[in-house]
Amino acid sequence: MIDFTQFDSLVTVADYFVNEKTCKQALTEARWGYDIVCPNCGKHHCARRSDGRFRCQACDHNFSCTTGTIFENTKLPLRKWFLAMYLISSHKKGISSLQLSRDIEVTQKTAWHMLHKIRSLYAQDSESQFDGTVECDEVYIGGKEKWKHKSMRTPHTQGRSTKTKTPVFGMMERTAIKNEDGEIEPMSYVRALVVEKCDKSTLQSIILRFVKKGSFVMTDNSQHTMVWVVLATITVSFATARRNMPMTTSSPTQSRVFGATSAG
Asked: In sequence order, which ranges of the chain are alpha helices (DSSP H)?
């Protein structure tokens, strides 16, 4: 990974990465240093070809500095990728695909795909916390028993059973950013974790870890959730997302949290 913290502005990034040759050299050094390693067999000291690609003398595999990365088979110049990476890493509250498309002169669809690929490179910081308004909910992922052959069905797996389903707990921070036109655009950040069970102690510890003190946390109206919500009010302020709302098959909190997860 190239360290973009050494640059203090977008201009310095653009001035440094002036062409594809410079970009590929920087990517090669960041990835391997001066000891080129074959991504196919792991052999060291691969030879550089005349066209700038590399060849492994052990397995005869030909590859480039972009092989096995998010840049592989891209039709965009690496310079635009690096500019996008700097913009994303330097904006604490994120950047919209519309804003990115204008900054690096690509279509919004292309910018959207770039955002998702680049964000996959950055591991979630376990020390960072959500603040402001945060929605929380859980979902149980797994196939329905009715679609299985009778001989393969597991009894008593309805609802929140974890016999054949995996519980996932999600949190979504509501925020907004201002684009270059001065307009406010909604932006959401989602963190989802696979948990062993959705009980009071498990979920409360996750919230206290990832949600900043004084935040406004919204949950659904499930009975087990309300138990640990009361206990957690010492540290975090809570509200109920479905207060005075009719019961439905899925809560609005759940549809937003995991809708954002599936969309991202």
From this structure: 10-16, 20-32, 78-90, 97-104, 108-119, 200-210, 223-232, 252-263
Torsions phi, psi for 124 (to 5 deg): -65, 130
The fold of 133-263 is Nucleotidyltransferase; domain 5 (3.30.420)
Residue 20 is predicted with a pLDDT of 93
Cut 0.85: pTM above it: no
Domain parsing of the chain, residue ranges: 4-119, 133-263
159 Rama sector, left if φ>0, alpha if ψ -120 to 50, beta otherwise: left
Rounded (5°) CA angle 43-69-19:
105
pLDDT along the chain (264 residues), means of 10: 83 93 92 89 90 92 91 93 90 79 92 86 62 82 68 65 75 70 68 81 80 78 45 45 36 52 42
For residues 17-39, one letter each, b for 16 or more C-beta atoms within 10 angstroms of the residue's C-beta and e for the rest, the string is beeeeebbebbbeebeeeebbbb
> Alpha carbon 154 to chain centroid distance?
34
pLDDT at 235: 41
Residue with token string 């995996």? 166
